Write the structure tokens for this entry.
Amino acid sequence: MNARLDHRNPLVFDTHELGRRPGALQRLTRAVAAPKDFGIEGVIGVPEGAQINLKLRLESVMDGVLVTGTSRATAVGECVRCLEPLELRVAADYQEMFSYPDADDRGRSKKAEPADDAEDDEDTLHLEDGLFDLESVLRDAVVLALPMQPVCREECAGLCSQCGIRLDENPDHNHEAVDIRWAALQGLAGTIQDGEKDNTGGAAESGVDEKQEK
């Protein structure tokens, strides 16, 4: 059994003033605190308790209340390129129908199969004693409005893949690229040069010894 809606919850709205006369309208504005886990986990999201500004339009229709809304908030995360913290203003628009409890009985076809009825009930949002909970609708809209790969700015150069230095602060930074095919030959050349130096030094010492003997 689902828990009853609490009218004290800032994301629960009361439609009693709207009434059930089709065409009736009501406009609401409200600032609410973001619930927990309001974003893309580990990437970006609206922090728990941060302010979300809501503008709602409630319209009474034959089978329920059509809710059209706009939400504004500030999301925080980190740039996927340079890993620096970032803040992003996010705007989310949504529209959802909250059906009257008896609307399903009026609109259901007599030929509908039980499985079809169960699927429809799962996807339908209902009013409960004239109240509706906006949290799930708002959460889905905000998550869809957030970028999957947030960046601090479009031109962010990111980090050096070899040493991790921030490239925006070091635009001339680079590492000398050495072809792996030549690395062994460079080592061999160094060994030969060292050997030649040793041989030259040995020959010089031998010449000095011979002069001393004479």
About this structure: The chain has a mean pLDDT of 81. Residues 58 and 67 are 5 Å apart (CA to CA). The chain has two domains: 12-145, 178-214.
